[in-house]
Amino acid sequence: MSDIEIRTLADTEWRESLALFRAALHVTPPTDEQWAVGSRSYEPGRTLGAFCGDTLAGTAFAWSSDLLVPGGAVVPMAAVTRVGVRSDFRRRGVLRELMRRQLADVADRGEVLAALRPTEPVIYGRFGYGQATRGAKTVAAPRNAVLRPEVSSGGRVRLVTPAEALAVMPGIYERAGRSRPGTMARPSYWWTVAYERAFAADEHIIVAVHSGPTGDDGYLMYRPTPGALPGTNATLAVDDFVAAAPDAVYGLWRFLLGVDLVDEVTVWTRPTDEPIAEALTDPRAITSAEHRSDLWLRLVDVPKALAAREYGPATVVLEVEDPLLPSNSGIYRLTPDGATRTTATPDLSLGVDVLAMLYLGTWRAGALTTIGRIRELTPGAAAKADTLFAVPQAAWCGTFF
Ligand SMILES: CC(=O)SCCNC(=O)CCNC(=O)[C@H](O)C(C)(C)COP(=O)(O)OP(=O)(O)OC[C@H]1O[C@@H](n2cnc3c(N)ncnc32)[C@H](O)[C@@H]1OP(=O)(O)O
User: Fold this and answer.
1) Do 235 and 317 fall within a single domain?
2) Residue 29 DSSP one-character state
3) Are residues 252 and 169 part of one domain?
4) Going by CA atoms, what residue is nearest to atom 18 of ligand 1?
5) Which atom of ligand 1 is nearest to the CA of 83?
6) Does 96 show up as a binding residue in the annotation?
7) Does residue 262 lie in a domain region?
8) Domain with 333 in it: what CATH number?
9) Ligand 1 site-directed mutation target among 61, 94, 95, 102, most atoms within 8 Å of CB
């Protein structure tokens, strides 16, 4: 029998939990000033502690959020973060017990999905998570980057104070940040940890807001790193770039590439199908472009998750295996009319982690079959699944948590 006890932590125990998580990332415990902000980033009832005897040996947390899925439905989702185990209690099953309990809690709350951003991709597949979206990281040399004449000139861009940024960003995110599958609700707790914490710590961050004919419709947040000597060129790193309409997207790019005394601009994440290099007169002004891991998803309630999204014109019968949440295991028929359980002979067989990779249309079933992640039981079924799961726009999350 396991000697690990898992329970929900009281608010008086959150600070110890945060100290444990930070220690797992080799960071010092929160100071009183940091905790004054950090304590407001905890959603009550969602911090788990793993105890070995009296010792808090591990912790895991989640915010209540939701996810936009193909077709436009919004599905309740737990955003899992702050997972850590003390280094003197590692590899004895503490994380496993935390994950087991957390997924049971998520299911009890009626949340259909769970999502996270892994520190190490090898950890979470065994708990049913799969990489569900990709993001494009782009590095540009602004001195050579000139937008083509056909590209929208965009609207007005203004720099805002921290107070104005905190007032306007959540609304802009709701209006312009949720247009694609894969985008998630940012709870108030998220804004506290992502922005209030950074402003309170006097971090050097700049927020630029774009306004079009209907008002504020995009913003970006960047961190400048000055050159070695005053007056020498800086680099800019964009951590948060929220815009959907082309006017706002390219208006913000135009602003960014026009900031003076800058050698290099890095945009950490944008959708993978945005043609920024092709928007320039010289595409080689983009010095590096790579697609990186974005959101990892776990289908906690497979029937509800499958029923929530839209499908392309094909019919496929899937056999899904979910050892951790066995009620999800079974055979599902997917058609443009929806998803139902069936006793029909399956065409494809896959784990619930791989289903998460297909769910938002990021990966192709045909490609995953070639590496053995999907077993094709009916010849040609993987190609049909590609039609079924295809999406018109690449899924993307873009929210780091
Ligand atoms: C969503 C987020 O918050 S991501 C942040 C995750 N946290 C960190 O990376 C902080 C530093 N690391 C840690 O705190 C811990 O090492 C953790 C949380 C990653 C793992 O905790 P542990 O209690 O040691 O894991 P546990 O013993 O339950 O292992 C479960 C399984 O995962 C495997 N595993 C755990 N961590 C790793 C790892 N880093 N690399 C490879 N395998 C791992 C174990 O080998 C075990 O495998 P099994 O299924 O074959 O038995």
Assistant:
1) no
2) P
3) yes
4) 84
5) 3
6) yes
7) yes
8) 3.30.1050.10
9) 95
Q: What is the pTM of this model?
A: 0.96
Q: What is the tens place of the pLDDT at every residue in 134-175? A: 999 999 999 999 999 999 999 999 999 999 999 999 999 999
Same domain, 260 and 330: no
pLDDT of residue 229: 87
pLDDT along the chain (401 residues), means of 10: 90 98 98 96 98 98 98 98 98 98 98 98 97 98 96 96 98 96 98 97 97 97 93 94 97 97 97 97 97 98 98 98 98 98 98 98 98 98 98 97 97
- Pairing mode, if any, of strands 286-293 and 134-140? antiparallel
- Does 119 contact ligand 1 (Cβ within 6 A)? yes
Residue for token digits 């928007």? 279
- Helix/strand/coil for 336: coil
Catalytic residue among 124, 127, 173, 189: 124
Q: Is the CB of 26 under 6 A from ligand 1?
A: no
Nearest CA owner, ligand 1 atom 7 = 84
Nearest by Cα to 303 from 320, 322, 328, 324:
328
Determine the residue type at 35: W
Q: For residue 57, which atom of ligand 1 is closest to its CA?
A: 23
Q: How far is residue 249's CA from residue 234's CA, in Å, rounded to a whole number?
A: 23
- pLDDT, position 1: 45
Q: How far is CA 135 from CA 88, 100, 330, 397, in A?
A: 35, 29, 32, 8
Above 0.90 for ipTM, yes or no? yes
Model pLDDT, residue 335: 98
Q: Is the CB of 122 under 6 A from ligand 1?
A: yes
- Give the atom of ligand 1 at the shortest distance from the alpha carbon of 126: 49
Q: For residue 47, is it within any domain?
A: yes
Determine whether the shortest distance from the Cβ of 120 to ligand 1 is under 6 A. Answer: yes
Considering 247, 274, 293, which residue would you say is the last residue of a domain?
Answer: 293
Residues 6+ apart with CB under 8 A from 88: none
- Interaxial angle between packed helices 381-389 and 352-359, expressed in degrees from 0 to 180 and rounded to the nearest 10: 50
**123 Cα: distance to centroid of ligand 1 (angstroms):** 6
Q: Whose CA is nearest to atom 35 of ligand 1?
A: 123
**Helices and strands (H, E) in the chain, number of each type:** 11, 19
222 is catalytic: no
Q: Is the CB of 4 inside a 6 Å radius of any atom of ligand 1? A: no
Q: What is the atom index within ligand 1 of the atom nearest the CA of 118?
A: 4
**Domain span at residue 334?**
302-389
400 lines ligand 1 (CB under 6 A): no
